[in-house]
Amino acid sequence: MPEPNDDVELPQATVVPPRRSRISIVWIIPVLAALVGIGIAVQRIRSEGPTITIVFKAAEGIEAGKTFIRYKDVIIGQVKSVQFTEDYAQVEVTAKITKRAAGLMVDDAQFWVVRPTITLSGITGLNTLLSGNYIGFEAGASDVERTEFIGLDKAPFVAGQLGREFVLTAEDLGSLAAGSPLYYRHLPVGQVIDFDLTPDGKSVRIHVFVNAPYDKFVSLGTRFWRTSGITVSAGANGFDIKTESLASLLVGGLAFDAPPFVHDTTVAPPDSIFALHEDRDTAMKARDAMTRLYVLRFNESLRGLSVGAPVTYLGIQIGEVVDIGFDFEPEKANIAPRVAITFYPERLLVFADPGQQKRVEEHLKSDERRRNAFLQRMIDERGLRAQLRTGSLLTGQLYVAFDYFPKAPKAGIVTRKGVTELPVVASGLVDLEAKLSSILDKIDRTPIEEIGAALRKDLESLDATLAGAQRLVTRVDTELVPSIKTDLDALRSTLGAMERTLKNADATLLGPDAPAQQELRDALVEFTRAARSMRVFLDYLERHPEAPIRGKAESTTGGK
Asked: Most Cβ neighbours (<10 Å): which of 8, 289, 324, 450?
């Protein structure tokens, strides 16, 4: 094998760039298809809404791929999966929300399962009998987006309704429940939506919702009260029976209104807090800013008098009883009943004219010494006293009445421990009892036995007198009556004879042909002539008064 020759020159290699190959047309179609798929996928992703998770206590009525999420009866999503949480205590529901509803998934949004429900307030969820259960949704007002939510155990009562929510405070819940109606002038305008205890556990907070447009009638001066089906109250004014609707009878109810004397019509903001009163009378009662406390000491039984009983002045309520108790008086070895009353002076100014109202108000606001001096004048000059009176005979309830008793004994105002004590008089029943007791004492002191013995003697004497009278009557009937009858018969025959005689005399003397009648006519003629001559004589004597002395003058004509 021949050796290589080192001197032989080898050819130099040159770098030739590779030729660029052309893409085959066959690959264009798959590439375009991939691009279209990617575009469709991106568009789909962009068109789809968010995926959210909702945690419920149970998955009753929820099925993946069948259960929808509805907002105002419009489908805004669908359940994709249902599974347990990591601790198996709850159920996690994954749902896909539409793009248009993505903006509704905010922090305070609410979800709940809608199923048929029958309560005393009504029937809800009837449409689920055909379409199946679905998840209800209520939009929130927050701007913070959220994808994880806690589902509600039950549907809210005011989902999708316009109005405002308010809070009422009370000592206890009573017969109220979620869904209890709320009335305004007997018109249903809302309902109770929830209730809970205050942090200290001493009272209850009741959340109510007033539908629009009635929520505008809830002002800062509005009063709320309970309305059961039938309210029966017995007090000093007798029995008072009030009825409400059947719904309030079954599930309780509330009502609200503003008193006529409240002029603050400012609309209350949402979540305003109001006190819940037990009845309408208590709620609509005037809140008197000016109050005065007085004490009354009655020396009689206070049975029938209760706290809250009215205090009247000439029949008009000016206060109420606030306390009933006893005062121990060891120096007198006595335990005296004590009644504390609250007086509202402002009620005396309601019907006063502005000038007089101002003077009275200044006087009422004056110091205690001046007020007591004025009361003392009314006590001394007009006899102002407090008295217990019966307000109703049916209930036996008492009330305190201030009136004038001019004949009452003198009394004065006593101030003890800074509290003014006013004088009192005994009630009418006590006076009646005292008078009856006095009458019974007088009857007891009367010698009834002696009066009975004297009366017995008088009765015996009267009996003897009646027996004598009876004997006299018997004698008259047996002895005198026959004699009187004989005399009467004789008198009757005599009168008959006289009657016959008078008839004969009438025929003899008074008949038309009787002689007496002719003689009577002649006598009348003579009497007429004599009367005529007497008239002529008197006329002559009137013309010639001197004739009795001088005689009759001869006629100048020659006549006599």
From this structure: 324
pLDDT of residue 472: 73
pLDDT tens figures, 6-38: 555 666 666 666 655 555 666 777 778 888 878
Specify if 447 maps to a domain: no
Burial (CB count <10 Å: 0-12, 13-18, 19+), residue 507: exposed
Query: Is residue 263 one of the residues assigned to a domain?
Result: yes
138 and 169, same domain (yes or no) = no
| 255, 214 contact by CB (below 8 A) | no
Q: Identify the domain containing residue 522 by its residue range.
A: 515-550
Considering Cα of 495, then 496, then 500, then 503, what sign does the dihedral take? positive
> Are 139 and 178 part of one and the same domain?
no
Question: Looking at the whole model, is its pTM more than 0.90?
Answer: no
User: Both 267 and 338 in a single domain?
Assistant: no
Local structure of residue 5 (DSSP, 8 states): P
Determine the Cα angle at 430 with ends 425 and 434, to 5°: 115
User: In total, how many domains does the chain have?
Assistant: 4
Helices (H), 413-480: 428-445, 448-475
Same domain, 369 and 411: yes
pLDDT digits (tens, 9 = 90+) for 255-279: 999 887 777 788 999 989 999 988 8
pLDDT at 380 over 70: yes
Least Cα distance to 341 among 387, 281, 408, 406 occurs for: 387
Report the distance separating Cα 102 and Cα 69, nearest Å.
13
Pairing status of strand 334-343 against strand 316-329: antiparallel
Are 106 and 146 in contact by the 8 Å Cβ rule? The answer is: yes
Query: Is 304:298 a contact under the CB 8 Å cutoff?
Result: no
Cα–Cα distance for residue pair 258/225, rounded to 1 Å: 11
Residues 479, 484, 486, 487, Cα dihedral to 10°: 140
Residue 305: how many other CB atoms lie within 10 Å? 19
Q: pLDDT tens, 304-343?
A: 888 888 898 888 888 889 899 888 777 777 787 889 988 8
Cβ–Cβ under 8 Å, residues 162 and 198: no
Domain co-membership, 65 together with 175: no
Per residue in 174-226, pLDDT (tens digit) is: 888 888 889 998 888 998 888 899 888 889 999 999 998 999 999 988 999 98
Contact status, residue 79 vs residue 64, Cβ threshold 8 Å = yes
Six token digits for residue 536: 């002529």
Is there a single domain that holds both residue 187 and residue 270?
yes
Question: Do 115 and 151 form a contact (C-beta atoms < 8 A)?
Answer: no
**Which value, to the nearest 10 degrees, does the dihedral of the CA atoms of residues 112, 118, 122, 127 take?**
60
